[in-house]
Design a protein that fits this description.
Layout: H1 2-26, E1 30-36, H2 42-53, E2 59-65, H3 70-76, E3 82-86, H4 95-102, E4 112-116, E5 133-139, H5 146-149, H6 151-156, E6 159-163, H7 175-185, E7 190-193, H8 202-213
Parallel strand pairs: 1-4, 1-5, 2-3, 2-4, 5-6, 6-7
The structure holds magnesium ion and zinc ion.
Magnesium ion (MG) binds near residues 42, 43, 71 and 116.
Amino acid sequence: MEIKILKDILGANEQIAAKNRELLEKNKVFCVNIMASPGAGKTSFVLQTIKALKGKFKIGVIEGDISSSIDAETVAKEGVPVVQINTGGECHLEAIQIQNALNNLPLADIDLLLIENVGNLVCPAEFNLGEHLKVLIASVPEGDDKPFKYPLMFTTVDALVLNKTDLLPYVKFNVDNFVKTIKNINARAEIFKVSCTTGDGVSEWAKWLKSRIK
Ligand code: MG
Ligand code: ZN
């Protein structure tokens, strides 16, 4: 019984995600769903991506959080249109919330839409939003064993960004093993090593994203 309910929810979500994708394509908007655990640096990554690409693309942002508008206020300072979704307790974003957010964004004036999902490595992986790319941010302090603990998330994404590389001298984290593990479970994922604090590696990510948009 419970399994049937879950299937129905996901089925409805897929239908709305397909409609979102249609609306995005109609408006020539390329959409990226950014997922990570809380504190991995999603908002800093959004800010770095805006700084790297705002001369080339008109960028918009959807911020997903259980509560508050702290991240949306931070991002709005960059002068880009932002919509905050408060899920009111839900630990992931669903396509219907994105549909609502899309109706509140100037889509004709956006080329690149960044969605910051709710901080969680489990269910965001199960809910398509209509995005073109799924990106996971893993961070050095979380440890290099996360791909084993959250396999669905790590196998679902198109790109994996290892953030906080500036902390590598202080934390036990084997980058080679981490990269090898990702390649074993998700061969198509592009892997980037960045520090949103120093800006290291951001240009490689921005260059790749730019190539995907074209
Ligand atoms: Mg955030
Ligand atoms: Zn959830």
